[in-house]
Amino acid sequence: MSDTPTPTGMPAETEADLTGVAARVAPKPEVEKIGGRKLKPSTLMMGHGYDPSLSEGSLKPPIFLTSTFVFPNAAAGKRHFEGVTGKRPGGAEGLVYSRFNGPNQEILEDRLGVWEEAEDALAFSSGMSAIATLFLAMVKPGDTIVHSGPLYAATETLIGRVLGKFGVKWLDFPAGATREEIDAVMTEAATGNVALIYLESPANPTNALVDVEAVAASRDAIFGDEKPPIAIDNTFLGPLWFQPLKHGADIVVYSLTKYVGGHSDLVAGGVLGTKAHINTIRTMRNTIGTITDPNTAWMLLRSLETLELRMSRAGENAAKVCAYLRHHPKVERVGYLGFLADEPGAERQADIYRRHCTGGGSTFSLYLKGGERESFAFLDALKIAKLAVSLGGTETLASHPAGMTHLSVPDARKQALGITDNLVRISIGVEDADDLIADFTQALEAI
Ligand SMILES: *Cc1c(COP(=O)(O)O)cnc(C)c1O
């Protein structure tokens, strides 16, 4: 019996010995290289981490709706729990219970990691649950988080008001800070225990880029052997236009709700990084259950197949739309990363852009001539672009930060961040660029 081939072509015994769960044995070696050529993420998104022969030949992974997984024998069950509880390093070798993981989530995590060549990745129920799980895994009372500012509003709330209640302290530097300014904040923070350095680049809505290489150099110089990890929210430019792990970051955080999901039809988050950091964060996720569900994971697998197509098109569209808007008589200024190179006074930011980014993205700030009245008239006149917050979807969105996402920010801070009444935030989608230009033209005329 033992040499009767299983669907995977391996004797049944070997299969159970390897993982304890037959369905998780990958029978066919996966092709990641052809003739020394390393396959690109856009190619790997169609098959990486999934073998159809394990699911009745189904070309696409089925959605595995189950809360728990059957062990082949008691010893295998015990081995899994040794992995889950950390008694044995490396995590569970098979699937155990759906708060810990599932087939759809594992395929998603394998594919997410591919984009930034991360050692490992985790999927979460939202961007915020990813960030909250990261923080809970990394900090304890009395610790300090050093962060760039401004951050996504809910992240600032989480650090200042939620973790603050548990005795966690924070110190921040402005997103565009120089090495000297970063050093000054790090030196002050180093008098306490810095558990985490947390960045977000570009900052919203200022679009200021953080010099991740300078932050890493500063951290290395000031902290010596006991280095706190550097985590960065890469939602606005990743994974296509910026890959922070290649510039000194240890952990990358995503709201997959935005460009990665890309169709404005789901909420999810991701964390990528070294195996050691991901293991720490996974243990916390296993405890509190912030994993994404199988259905959302499946939708994200579909999204990843077109990620490069969508982001490339959105990026090209944004370049065309911004080139048009920039010289319009009713426009004061366009805050688009692609223009940094020829903006007077933006030499430092342009230098960071040149070193870190491969594209300007498709989310930018449009400063109209006038104030709230002009902004509202423009927004209300749009026919193609939808009036909604969020970004990174196939459709173009426009919103008014001062009156919407940043309404509760105190006036002085709004002023400092450049969140003025004439600011409109735009996220360009994958529509026809000339149609979008026609829409913006008529909306500007309507002011
Ligand atoms: C949207 C967003 C988040 C939060 O993500 P959710 O998926 O809404 O929880 C975090 N950071 C940035 C930069 C975002 O744009």
TrEMBL record:
One Gene Ontology cellular component annotation held by this UniProt entry: cytoplasm
Keywords: Lyase, Pyridoxal phosphate
Origin superkingdom: Bacteria
Coiled-coil annotated residue ranges, if any: none
Biological process, per Gene Ontology: transsulfuration
GO terms for MF: carbon-sulfur lyase activity; pyridoxal phosphate binding
Residues that bear N6-(pyridoxal phosphate)lysine: 258
InterPro entries tied to this protein: Cys/Met-Metab_PyrdxlP-dep_enz (IPR000277), Cys_met_metab_PP (IPR054542), PyrdxlP-dep_Trfase (IPR015424), PyrdxlP-dep_Trfase_major (IPR015421), PyrdxlP-dep_Trfase_small (IPR015422)
SUPFAM superfamilies according to UniProt: PLP-dependent transferases
Cofactor(s) required, per the database record: pyridoxal 5'-phosphate
Family: Belongs to the trans-sulfuration enzymes family.
Protein name per Swiss-Prot or TrEMBL: Methionine-gamma-lyase
Source species of the chain: Sphingomonas aerolata
